[in-house]
Amino acid sequence: MLPIIEYSLSYSAPTGAERDALSALTLTPDARWHERMDHARFVVTALHEGTRVGVGIVHTSVTAPTMVPSPMELGGMFVHPAYRRLGIRQHMAEARLTYALSMGGTPITVIDNRNQASWGYYERSARWTPEREYTGYVTGLPMTIWVSTESSWYRTAMGLNPLVPAQPNTVLPHDASPQRPLALGPDQDNAVPA
């Protein structure tokens, strides 16, 4: 029997005990993690029987050399290993993308090129396109910036009708993008963070 997972949404940076609890889910809650948390605009938390088992954030502390306007990075997503392969990552990814699009930002995500599962997911997805590869400032390793094909910036650049920014909790119309729905990614059992 699958556990019942509940999701909590927050539109501000977590502080105090909440921040400590979310940081405990990460592999390494380092200075970069806390910088992302300081600039969080949206946090989705997965809960099982009141225990935090996953977290995903949208932040504006973008250090990747992206050229897109108003980037909102979907960075810092972690799921406890015991709760992977249950669709939690998919649900949190969808919530983060919807939030960034509803705010009129350009959703980006940065993938460590060593993370083959995430790389494969984004490479197969019609919802993301690579912008560029660069050397990570902290790691010194190859990273790739992926841009949402559903963003107003990308849609305008491709000659499509741009999305109209909405407010938090607004569901974007299903016909806003002809792309297929987000599929469950194989990266849910990978130890390298997304």
Secondary structure: elements and pairs:
Layout: E1 5-10, H1 16-23, H2 31-38, E2 40-48, E3 51-59, E4 71-79, H3 88-102, E5 106-112, H4 116-124, E6 128-135, E7 142-148, H5 152-157
Parallel strand pairs: 4-5
Antiparallel strand pairs: 1-2, 2-3, 3-4, 5-7, 6-7
Protein name: GNAT superfamily N-acetyltransferase
Pfam families: Acetyltransf_1
Region (Disordered): 169-194
Describe the protein in words.
The protein is of the alpha+beta class and 194 residues long. The protein has a single domain, classed as Aminopeptidase. The chain has five helices and seven strands; from the N terminus they run E-H-H-E-E-E-H-E-H-E-E-H. The protein has a seven-stranded mixed sheet with strand order 1-2-3-4-5-7-6. The longest helix is centred in the middle third of the chain and has 15 residues, at 88-102. The model is unreliable at 165-170 and 172-194 (pLDDT under 50).
